[in-house]
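Design a sequence for this backbone.
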């Protein structure tokens, strides 16, 4: 049994969750559910990212405190994740006492090591607004690609930026030109870690293409030392004398949430923290491509600077972007599909299925309402649901509602056994979309088998062949419920409960005579009127 840590990226509490954010996070839940079913000990952790400028800006705009804003969206996130079936072992928040105390102690130890040092650094100040400017409040052109962007990270090429690096910098609030004062900050010497991070990248040749490419680019450009403190009031205070008026830079504390929450979980389970972060572990980090450098450069850099042999990330599950009807999702322009609204109208398994099978695993993907309808009606309802329904309905109507004493096709049994191996390997490697597609190929195989055997005909001409067909289809349905349980937990549980199947990742077969209760339909048809009502605002 291995210790499997799965870290889902922490969504920022500056606004509600949209499908783009969730599509990047869903693979983590699939991986967590799979590893539990496979018998491993899972630590699936995430939480709400509360600190930093975006929350402060929204709080100021709404006349509220940052605490009120982050608490509001934290509660909403929890509700959305629960309704979507996310199986977090802990979902915390960076403003919690547990996280704050862990981060302060982690930084205190890190400051004692040789890779943290003091240096004067520029601080943007707007004369017109008469205030210091946070990174996000400085806009300009990216020195790498020339695009208009804010400081912190380029919105086009994802280059990590400091305000003083921007070309033609301006105050985001008034448009005035900032001046740069000098202030004392703490820095992490990433430049001294370059060779170790180079070897780290080379030791993971199977990472996704975007993770390797982004990390390679940063290394080829040469790693620069980065400030890990900032002149901010909303954040975690710096545990060092002379820096009491500063906060830990948000990127140097939010990625430590994986450690703070797994430490809390280990304590609850009476497991040494070192077991989760030691040799008998495997770590997955699940996020969008804009977060790649924070998981392949920054987090490893912090762990190495801490110097206590903590495990570096093993698997980087980095998605591309999801667009909406061919356009970039924009929360500020309300060009987004909000998960909370989607859950009020549609089956959570449908939402999960669409965001996984149409997910941006290797390239950008698009959310199209018409395709959303088609995926439900054709694949979930017409493919999987139809096979289960006609198999069990036939059993109820013609075979006394019980598993017949008949021959289970050896060929189909082999197909089922091979499916567990093939799908399991793909989930473990982070190829979630491909794994789901393989299962739905088994769904199509099952429907073809049912059609080819035509039990509605053999019922009156060859009852033995009819029973052989149905017992084989029942076993297919039972194992589909297991194979799909990491992806579609709600419908899978309904079917597994009906067939008395455990959620263990191995072939399972119903015994002769088992009485199958009525199940009802697993999925419902969506019509164009429902679709129009849900997405009418997108036609504007």
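Sequence:
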């Amino acid at each position: 049994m291995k210790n499997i840590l799965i870290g889902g990226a922490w969504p920022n509490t500056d606004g509600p969750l949209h499908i783009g954010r969730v599509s990047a996070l869903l693979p983590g839940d699939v991986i967590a559910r799979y590893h539990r079913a496979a018998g491993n000990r899972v630590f699936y952790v995430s939480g709400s990212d509360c600190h930093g400028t975006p929350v402060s800006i929204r709080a100021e705009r709404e006349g509220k405190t940052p605490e009120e804003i982050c608490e509001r969206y934290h509660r909403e996130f929890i509700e959305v994740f629960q309704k979507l079936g996310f199986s977090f072992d802990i979902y915390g928040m960076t403003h919690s006492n547990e996280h704050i105390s862990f981060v302060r102690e982690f930084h205190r130890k890190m400051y004692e090591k040789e890779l943290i040092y003091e240096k004067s650094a520029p601080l943007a100040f707007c004369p017109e607004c008469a205030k210091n400017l946070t990174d996000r409040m400085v806009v300009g052109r990216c020195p790498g690609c020339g695009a208009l962007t804010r400081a912190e990270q380029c919105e086009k090429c994802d280059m990590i930026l400091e305000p003083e690096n921007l070309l033609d910098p301006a105050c985001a609030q008034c448009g005035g030109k900032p001046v740069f004062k000098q202030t004392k900050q703490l820095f992490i010497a990433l430049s001294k870690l370059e060779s170790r991070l180079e070897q780290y990248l080379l030791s993971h040749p199977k990472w996704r293409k975007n993770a390797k490419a982004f990390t390679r680019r940063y290394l080829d450009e040469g790693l620069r030392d980065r400030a890990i403190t900032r002149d901010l009031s909303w954040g975690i205070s710096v545990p060092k004398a002379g820096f009491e008026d500063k906060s830990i830079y948000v990127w140097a504390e939010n990625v430590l949430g994986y450690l703070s929450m797994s430490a809390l979980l280990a304590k609850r389970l009476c497991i040494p923290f070192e077991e989760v972060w030691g040799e008998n572990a495997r770590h997955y980090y699940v996020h969008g491509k804009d977060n790649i450098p924070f998981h392949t450069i920054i987090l490893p850099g912090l762990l190495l600077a801490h110097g206590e042999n903590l495990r570096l990330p093993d698997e980087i599950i980095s998605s591309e972007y999801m667009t909406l009807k061919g356009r970039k999702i924009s929360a500020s322009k309300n060009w987004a599909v909000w998960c909370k609204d989607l859950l009020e109208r549609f089956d959570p398994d449908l939402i999960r299925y669409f965001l996984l099978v149409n997910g941006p695993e290797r390239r950008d993907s698009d959310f199209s309402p018409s395709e959303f309808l088609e995926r439900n009606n054709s694949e979930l309802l017409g493919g999987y649901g139809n096979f289960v329904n006609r198999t069990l309905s036939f059993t109820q109507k013609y075979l006394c509602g019980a598993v017949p004493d008949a021959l289970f096709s050896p060929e189909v049994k082999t197909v089922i056994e091979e499916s567990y191996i093939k799908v399991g390997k793909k989930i473990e490697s982070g190829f979630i979309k491909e794994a789901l597609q393989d299962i739905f190929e088994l769904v199509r195989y099952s429907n073809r088998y049912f059609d080819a055997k035509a039990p509605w005909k053999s019922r009156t001409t060859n009852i033995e062949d009819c029973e052989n067909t149905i017992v084989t289809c029942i076993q297919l349905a039972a194992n589909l419920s297991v194979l799909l349980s990491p992806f579609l937990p709600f419908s899978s549980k309904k079917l597994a409960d009906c067939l008395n199947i455990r959620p263990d990742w191995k072939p399972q077969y119903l015994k002769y005579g088992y009485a199958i209760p009525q199940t009802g339909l697993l999925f419902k048809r969506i019509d164009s009127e429902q679709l129009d009502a849900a997405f009418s605002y997108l036609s504007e």
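The radius of gyration is 26 Å.
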